[in-house]
Structures are given as structure tokens and as C-alpha cells.
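Worked Example 4.2. Consider the chain below.
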Amino acid sequence: MFCRNCGSEVAEQAVVCVTCGCSPRNGKNYCQNCGAETNPAAEVCLKCGVKLTVVAKTGDKSKLAAGLLGIFLGGLGIHRFYLGYVGIGIAQIIVTLITFGIGGIWGFIEGIMILTDVIDKDAKGMPLRE
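Applying the procedure from the previous section yields the following C-alpha cells:
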């Protein structure tokens, strides 16, 4: 197997390329099968004909955890703090306190929206992992 970032040969189980320090599956410059230089927009290697792998980047935040936090602790904005939206989390606490808990419906609804993929990114714009 070859590093998609620098083209160096790496072990099949490698999680990092020792030449460039990147994950060997995350680049777009070289074919993972033959090591030939490729066009970053190409889907197939023109030298060996293999489909070029593309690893979709996902965040480290769990969709299930965020959704359940929203459903059970949504009034306190815990799910928003978990996803990195500190300002919205503070706003949810204030609304819940001012409305004597009725504002907790906001977080409950957002918890359902997270679980149904209406809200699918964290504050950094990274997709939530399954």
C-alpha cells in the first residue's frame, strides 16, 4: 500500500506514514495501490485502474450522545455545550430558568433533530459520527 499524501510505501495496517506524518489514507496526490501520482479530483488511477479511496472526515462528537443529552438534559443546554456551541448552551439555560422549565422543550426538540440528522454538524463544522 502507498501513502495517498506523499506516495511512500507503507504497511497495510499503518495509521500514520513515517515519511510525511499524515494518515496514509487521507491524501489525494497518489494512488494507494501503485503509488503513481494522481490528479486530486480523479476517482480512478490512470496507471493501474484502481478506484481511489477517499476517507470522509468526521468529527469526534457522537450523534447518539448529543441527541440523548438534548432529550434528557436539553433544558440545560448540555447537548449544545457538548457540540461546542457555548453561546447557545448558555441561552438555553437562561430561557429554561426564565420560563420555569418550559424552555426545556427547546432542547428536547433539538435532541430529536440531532437524532434525525436535521442537526448533523458540531460547532467546528465537522459531521457527527454515528
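The chain has two domains: 1-55, 63-115. The chain has a mean pLDDT of 92. Compare this with Example 4.1 before moving on.
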